[in-house]
Amino acid sequence: MIDHGIKYHTFRVNLVPSVISLANPPWQREVWGRPSEFETLDEVVHVLFDDFCDACAPEKYLGVSLRTEREVELMRQVGVTYTAVQDEVGGLAPDEDFLADPGWPEVVAAAGRLAPELVKNDMHALMSLREAGHQWPPEVGAGRARVVPAVVLLACPTWQREVWGASANLDELFDSPERFLGDSLRTGEEVELTRQLGVAYSAVRDAAYLDSDGWTEVVAAAGRLAQVMVTSDLQALAMLDDSGHPWPPEVSGG
User: Fold this and answer.
1) pLDDT tens per residue, range 228-244
2) Which are the contacts of 24, defined by CB distance < 8 A and separation ≥ 6?
């Protein structure tokens, strides 16, 4: 599938983390609706419907903040499911009314299908730049292209139940995350969040993963790590663009 590129990287920096938020119920419970936190459902909705995309008519943002026709199609599903819930509860309803609506799991599911697609395409673009000779920020290596999409999959619970195809083996990363600083991980914060994810994952290693009592904490820990990793990578892409590196006009996606 053709990658049409991103015209405004600041749009993508805001859009992808917002989709991950919408796909991760623990993040919604931990962050939204708390005055001390930095994000609300209303802000996420403005990102996806007003400021950096229009989930009801996403085709207008192909090549602007969406890379491929597949991203457009999946974003449209987010728009349809969210609008159905908003029509039911009312646009001015508090966040908890949205989260309690019977249609909300469909919103989470739609976002969970979109989030891995967005991240996969961004990582493919980063690696294409690397293979073309552009050394994207030197504090990470090629291993990141395997790790980030796998973490995002762990953060999307409804996607897991529908598909479950996180093929990357993360055991070695979880056992000694500090060893991967400078390859799969960029910062000390990512190392610590990876350690927390590993602890949660180990607690359910021998259980029936998705049905175990501890799986919610795996999803929560993955959601926190995914937000940090994805934002960092998108900022790296934006810096590459600002520095004059040409963006691949067409990248064949997987």
Assistant:
1) 999 988 887 777 766 65
2) 108, 155, 156, 157, 219, 220, 222, 223, 226
**Angle, CA of 164, 170 and 174, to the nearest 5°:** 130
Burial class of 103 by CB neighbour count within 10 A (0 to 12, 13 to 18, 19+): middle
Mean pLDDT by 10 residues, the chain (254 residues): 89 96 94 80 96 97 97 98 97 93 96 95 82 62 81 86 60 87 88 92 69 84 94 82 51 40
247, HSE (Cβ side, Cα atoms, 13 Å) = 21
- Domain spans of the chain? 9-242
SS3 content of the chain, % helix, strand, coil (to 5): 65, 0, 35
Given a contact cutoff of 8 angstroms between Cβ atoms, the answer to whether 139 and 186 are in contact is yes
- Cα angle 239, 242, 248 (rounded to 5 degrees) comes to 90
Q: Specify the amino acid at residue 52.
A: F
**Residue 66 dihedral angles phi and psi, to the nearest 5°:** -120, 140
The residue assigned the tokens 């159905």 is 84
Residue 3 φ/ψ, nearest 5 degrees: -90, 115
Other C-beta atoms within 10 Å of 239: how many? 13
Spatial neighbors of 83 by CB under 8 A, at least 6 apart, are 56
∠ CA 81-84-89 to the nearest 5 degrees? 125
- Summarize pLDDT for 97-142 with one digit per residue, the tens: 999 999 999 999 999 999 999 999 998 888 777 777 666 555 566 6
CA distance 151 to 135: 23
